[in-house]
Amino acid sequence: MFLQRFVPRHARTTSEVIKAVFWPIAIMTVIHRMAVLAVNGARTNDFAPVWDAARKFLHHQAIYTDNFNSVDPHYLYYPSGTLLMAPAGLINYEWSRWGLIIVDAAAIIVAGYVLLKMFGYGLNSLAAPVLLFAMFSTETVSNTLIFTNINGVILLGEMLFLWLLLKGHQTWAGVPMGLTIAIKPTLAPLMLLPLLNRQWRPFVAAIGIPVVLTAIAWPLSADPMQFVHHTLPNLFQARDYFNSSIVGNGLYYGLPSWLILALRILFAALVLASLWLLYRYYRHDQLFFLCTGSGLLLAASFLLLSLGQQYYSMMLFPLMMTVVLKNSVIRNWPAWLAAYGFLSFDSWLSGRFRVYGEAATYLRPTLGWSLLIVVIFTVLLNRYLVARAENRLDRGIDPQWCAPAPHGRSLGAADRVTVGA
Fold first, then answer.
1. Strand ranges inside 117-218, DSSP E
2. Do 391 and 94 contact (CB within 8 A), yes or no?
3. CA proximity to 340, closest of 305, 375, 307
4. Where are the alpha helices (DSSP H) in 221-353?
5. Looking at the structure, do residues 294 and 195 belong to the same domain, yes or no?
6. What is the dihedral angle through the alpha carbons of 401, 404, 406, 408, rounded to the nearest 10 degrees?
7. Would you tell me how many other CB atoms lie within 10 Å of the CB of residue 180?
8. Is the pTM of this model over 0.90?
9. Cα–Cα distances in Å, from 45 out to 8, 71, 151, 163, 238?
10. Are 107 and 153 within 8 A, CB to CB?
11. How do residues 210-225 score in pLDDT, each as one tens digit?
């Protein structure tokens, strides 16, 4: 009978049962996010100004003419990004938007696969469907597709950058980084990681590609100097709407400027101290160093710079994946309370408790990023103080029960949590 194929021929392991449960749930979640939520769209539409700019670029019309007094999405891409996005203007708006939804979803799925491979897992492991379901259940992936922006492609660029660095392909690692910076500089803080590793070759492509693309796009643009005089200054100004950074929420809630500055300095100090501890005691373990360091730097940029939006948080996926490592800094409940803050798709808006609901909704990603930075700093500092008290700083700061990876290699399968075959 047809149904006979679904009857197991032997007792299934826990891993097989979990995979049987999560694969259909994960696949249907992906389809729902793409075919229903993304196609339906929302009031916020990040793609409309991009498609309009691409069409104008192809017809040599002025692009950088936005009125920044409105709260509608604005076109903020560099001329190099306009050049890369120009093909979107070759077809009608609806088909072009659907095309970007498909490209974004595919990029996120491929990025998830690269993330699995970085940690030694394959498609046959139970980590694969769990990770796929977890990614597409988040606000960051859902709203990237619904609002139809380029963040899914940026995530893939981040994963390829980290993967190539881990594999020792320094020159090639700069290529995905350079392409993403050419569009927008979300991942630019990650260039501090190869700098700390004294690796110079990634900078060739990371700097060279945006420069070359800008040189090509500049004479093809109708108003390139308007980007410099009109758009670029706006990129460095904090806005008080749709902005979850400290300064954004500080302006929205009317905090005094000295308190906003003090909070930014405080968290910058925590980030610098954490980065020093990572550099001093974990640089030999590149998997841990790159994934934890990338999450720390990006969370800091979302929180401390002029603009931070919750759907940027997908760039923290490598950090969250470190939970499978024995020496992970996020194996504690405060870290996952923080993750709820910046990853959850829940809305706390309430008709009965309007003020509190709005505060919970608007501050949730800000508090999540803040708590994550505090957790990373606290765990690393505690490890340092314990190791110093036990007079074993020369052997690293990992807890004694957590055997660190020997110098010169990354963590292997034996150092990771087993997540299925």
1. none
2. no
3. 375
4. 224-226, 232-235, 246-252, 257-282, 286-304, 317-321, 333-343
5. no
6. 180
7. 28
8. yes
9. 47, 12, 14, 32, 20
10. yes
11. 999 999 999 999 998 9
In a domain, 269, yes or no: yes
- DSSP for residue 415: G
Helix (H, G, I), strand (E, B) or coil at 69: coil
Residue 268 structure tokens: 């910058």
d(CA 81, CA 95): 20
Rounded to whole angstroms, the Cα distance separating 205 from 391 reads: 43
State which residues form the domain around 219: 13-237
- pLDDT per position as a tens digit, 324-365: 999 999 999 999 999 999 999 998 988 888 889 999 999 999
Distances (CA, A) of 8 to 12, 25, 421: 7, 20, 18
Note whether residue 4 is domain-resident: no
Q: In 3-state terms, what secondary structure has residue 88?
A: helix
- Amino acid in position 168: G
Last residue of one domain, picked from the residues 206, 237, 268: 237
The pLDDT tens digits for 273-295 are 999 999 999 999 999 999 999 99
Interior angle at CA 236, CA 231 and CA 237, nearest 5: 95
CB count within 10 Å of CB 395 equals: 12
Cβ atoms within 10 Å of 199's Cβ, excluding its own: 17
The burial class, CB within 10 Å (0-12 / 13-18 / 19+), for 193 is buried
Residue 5: is its pLDDT beyond 90? no
| Total domains present in the chain | 2
d(CA 110, CA 97): 20
How many CB atoms are located within 10 Å of the residue 327 CB? 22
306 and 342 part of one domain: yes
| Contact present, 339 and 368 (Cβ < 8 Å) | yes
Instruction: Give residue 232's identity as a one-letter amino acid code.
Output: L
377 shares a domain with 249? yes
Q: Are 232 and 226 in contact (CB under 8 A)?
A: no
For residue 78, pLDDT over 70 is answered with: yes
Distance of CA 107 to the CA centre of its chain: 13
Query: Which ranges of 59-92 would DSSP assign to H, the alpha helix?
Result: 79-85
